[in-house]
Structures are given as structure tokens and as C-alpha cells.
Amino acid sequence: MGTLEVLDVGADRAHDVLDLIHVTFAGRPVLDPPSTALEETIDSVTRTLARYGGLLALLDGRPVGALLLDEDQGLLGVHRVGVLAPARRHGVASALARRAEEVAGERKLRGLELEARRELPATVRFWEGHGYVETGHRGPRLRMTRLLPLTTDLPRAVDTRAVGERLGRLLRAGDLVILTGDLGAGKTTLTQGLGLGLGVRGAVTSPTFVISRIHPAQHGGPPLVHVDAYRLGGTAELDDLDLDTDVEDAVTVVEWGEGLAEALTGDRLEIRLQRPADPSSEVRTLTMTAVGARWREADLSVVLLPDAD
Q1: Which of 5, 24, 47, 66 measures 20 to 30 Å from 41, CA to CA?
Q2: What are the Cα distances from residue 123, in Å, to 20, 132, 175, 296?
Q3: 268 pairs with which residues across the strands?
């Protein structure tokens, strides 16, 4: 394998990027409606690169892959992704995808978005493998979105509970929250905050021995279904709880739910809480990743800001 590098490029590399777009898209199957990539000109590519930039992949110094970028609604748009056929087994597309994610983070954007064609299932699977999910479609054109994780440190239990309370105010019926993390990292504490934000009745405690509890709302909002999946042996046992009958009408929180609860709904919040390596420190680290169309336009960063109350 040769030396692979991915460059952030501007208008000065427009000819290289345009050549790659034309060559790679000319070799693809004819679609209906057809791709407009072959209509790109040196002027159109130059304008896009000058305003938003792009990426150029080099294999042993030779251009072999490229993509164009733009920005809209806090998301980094990824367009015209192309890799020369001889270079497709060298990880070029994955390298471009990883760098695009880094660019989105560096620009303080919420995530990334692209369009994939339903008639090209291998392409759709590739982007799914990089964390993109379908969040809309126009005929055969699928809108695929990847929202970037948000991370914050929580010095005290009261901070964990406050984050949960702020998040609870944003949640609505049908929302799923999957909580994972170390023992004693604060999963139940966070859920107590969610209960406060939702305004539900009853003390929120770990449901380990009863597997799940339902907390009705006090003022007409959705109930909270609180599940502890620690003792469940797999997805079959989770299915036995018949949670799918409640998911649409409730806010469902599943502790220890990673790898089990994702099938309940395509839209979810994945929250991981980690204890510090230093046993003398009480600081927890929270990482929150939103998945699905439900969260595409939501600004979840306010949940993690201490002054967002």
C-alpha cells in the first residue's frame, strides 16, 4: 500500500478536483434522474472551493479522490465524493470521510450531511458504516446525516442531575435515551434529572430488580419509562418487556442499553458516562450522540452549558 494523505484544498486545486469528479462519476451506473456531477465546471468548482473548501486525497502524491464541502443549518455538507477505481482498495473513501468529520468539528458544526442514491446500496452501506443515518428522502435520493458527539465534564452529582433536568425539558413522547457507562458513573442520577425536567411522579431510582418502572407525568406530559438492562441477556429479553408498545407514547430511558435498545426506534440519544481514571477525582465525563431525523435540527449543546438554566 502506498502513502495516503488527505489535503484540505481551496480554489487553487479546482482543476484536480474537477478532473476527479468527472472521471469518477462518468464511470458510475446511469441513474434516473441522472446525477448532475458531470455538469460541474471549473467555475462552479472554483466557487465552491473558494467559499467552503474541499478535500483532495493523494496516493503516493497522485490525486485519487476528492469531495466538495458546504455549510447549511449548522451542518457540513459533503458532495461529489469520488475515488478513482484503481485506488478503491486503499481506504481512500474512508480517509476522506474521517477528515470531513474532523473538519466539521474544527468548524464547530453540529454534524455532517450528504445525499446518497437508493439505487447504489453499497454506497448507502458505506456511509451507514461511518455513522450516517437516513433522515429524509426525495424519491431515490436519500438524505443521510451524522451528528457529532457532544462532551462535557461533570464535577459533581448535582451537575449530572442538572444536565438531565435540562435535557428532560426538551424530550417528548417517542424519545429514546440509551445510557451506558461505568458502575457508579451517574446513570441513575442523570435519569433523576430527566424525571425532574419531564415533571413525572414518583422517586426515580435504579430499577435493577424490577427491570423497568413507569413514572406518570404530573401535568399532562409523557410518562417516563425507566429500564435497567443490566440483567437482561440480550435483545430477546428486552423484546419480552413489550417496550415497543410504550415507546411512541413515553420517554424511554434504558440504562446499560448499548447494543440492546437501538432497535426500539431509529431516533435516539446515546449518552455515555465515564468515571475518571484517578480514583480521587469525582469528575465524570458525559458524551452525548444524537441519532436520527428527530435531532437533526435540535441544538443539544444548550443542555451541556451550565448557564442554560
Answers
A1: 5
A2: 18, 11, 29, 21
A3: 291
